[in-house]
Amino acid sequence: MSHLRQSLFSSPFRRAAVLIGTLALSGLAASGQAAETGEPTEAQPELPRQPLTIVSANGQHLFSVELAKTPRQQQVGEMFRPTVPADRGMLFVWPYPQQSDMWMENTLASLDIVFIGADHRIQAIAENAVPRSLAHISSHGPVVATLELQGGVTAKEGISVGDRIEAAALGGKS
């Protein structure tokens, strides 16, 4: 599991219960598409994008981010993708402020993982997350969203904790 690293999925039992619940709610179990809940084996198709701006002390940094909305999209995230372009990323918007725990299983490219607080400011950054690592990367407190960017881009662009995130998915401009 690469990217749905929410506390909901912190134990195998909860993960199974949520996946079964997701199947039941979506009707996938009846339609024979239950295979989508297994461990991912390939990159997912590109997801819908939207602009995202990070406003920092040295200016505005523009990105085009994919929106991972469904549990499956969030689970697969950036898995199996060999690169993440410097101006791209993936945004995970959580249904309510909560602990976000991520890891890099099956993720081939290094990522900067940016945790976004309820005030739409960067609460924490994990720079250059190690590809394929199972080490947990934590928000260290509740966040409303998690943003994955190319590894090293936050340092290169001078993006830091406290910078403001603007994106329509967060209820802000961009």
UniProtKB/TrEMBL annotation:
UniProt signal peptide: 1-34
Domain of life: Bacteria
Coiled coil: none
Keywords: Signal
Pfam families reported in the protein's UniProt record: DUF192
Annotated InterPro entries: DUF192, Saro_0823-like_sf
PANTHER family registered for this protein in UniProt: UPF0127 PROTEIN MJ1496
Name the record gives this protein: DUF192 domain-containing protein
Source species taxonomy: Bacteria, Pseudomonadati, Pseudomonadota, Alphaproteobacteria, Acetobacterales
